[in-house]
Amino acid sequence: MKAIGYRQNLPVDQPHALEDLVLPAPQPGPRDLLVRVKAVSVNPVDTKVRRNRVPKPGQPEVLGWDAVGIVEGVGADVQGFKPGDRVFYAGSITRPGANSELHVVDERIVAKAPASLEDAQAAALPLTAITAWELLFDRLRVPQGGGAGQTLLVVGGAGGVGSILIQLARQLTQLQVIATASRPETRAWCLELGAHAVIDHAQPLSQALKDAGLGQVDFVAALTQTGQHYEQIVESLKPQGALAVIDDMPVLDAMKLKTKAISLHWELMFTRSMFGTPDMAEQGKLLAQVARLVDEKRLRTTAGAHYGTINAANLLRAHAFIESGKAQGKVVLEGF
After folding, report:
1. Alpha-carbon span 103 to 89, nearest angstrom
2. Which residue has better confidence, 250 or 20?
3. Which of 47, 57, 49 is nearest to 13 (CA)?
4. pLDDT, position 15
5. DSSP 314
6. Residue 290: closest CA among 178, 167, 195
7. Where are the alpha helices (DSSP H) in 247-311?
8. pLDDT tier at 255 (50, 70, 90 boundaries)?
9. Nearest-CA neighbor of 265 among 290, 229, 281, 241?
């Protein structure tokens, strides 16, 4: 089968940072689906793994943790899916990725794809929707339908996670949603997705909130450059507020949260599949709810740019765009 991967850790401007490969087709395990991949999207995790995970000798690493495809085969213990089903999912960081014609994935983290979206549009959603959903409802513990009188600040509102988090918060809670964006086009994007207000994260956040007449917030979703914004995030949170973080940084000084009794939450959507947690199937369930909300026209795709066919050259362009920090929504690719 065709696949795209890497054999050595190289910068994105090197031609062999990703390569077109021909690999044996995978075989599904007892709870796996064998999926013929139709479309994928690219996330920051793809670029991080490409730079840092060293392939085993003779075993190229295949990336890709967002896919839409058609089920071709099922494992002996699969009950929820059958060949011919059109599905979407993010997969597991501990298994080969979905940048391949055929891919195997545990059925518990899969759902039927939204019927109202084309393949590439649907491929933009799984990883970021899971991240945003878990961050909002499982980590910050905002109840669905709740949040009246409270405010959520989304730092990095125009990125992949921010783009779906704004929508989920507006559609499923009563929170006031404030996003951050630094360019006119990303500001407009956040407002279009439903943010009540947008402030410029190129300015000190606490001052930008005051200038907008907004004051301190109850919750912060720190989605990018948390280390850079950390002091201002603490300043912007109300006493007994809550901070949820998704990005990597060398160090985070939690003692700065003590005076205000701010709670700190880490969100990693791969945790359930990585550890095989008892509630692993919750990811499949929440993706099914996302698909329903999309088909009800309450959520929209966050696809921002279509980079063409799934191949090494186009994926390298996508990685470079993600690494530039200027992505708006998600980069999608489809077909081999």
Report:
1. 11
2. 20
3. 47
4. 87
5. H
6. 167
7. 271-275, 282-295
8. very high
9. 241
pTM here is 0.95
Rg value, the chain, Cα: 20
Question: 3-state DSSP call for residue 301?
Answer: coil
CB 38 within 8 A of CB 119: yes
SS3 191: helix
pLDDT above 90 (res 136): yes
For 54-73, how does the pLDDT look when each residue is reduced to its tens digit (9 = 90+)?
999 989 999 999 999 999 99
Cα–Cα–Cα angle for 92, 303, 109, rounded to 5 degrees? 25
Question: What does each C-alpha distance from 218 to 22, 133, 140 come to in angstroms?
Answer: 50, 18, 10
Residues 159, 274: Cα–Cα separation, whole Å: 24
What CA–CA distance (Å, rounded) separates 46 from 37?
17
Domains delineated in the chain? 2-125+273-334 (3.90.180.10), 132-266 (3.40.50.720)
In this prediction, residue 39 carries a pLDDT of 98
> Residue 232: which pLDDT band, with cuts at 50, 70 and 90?
very high
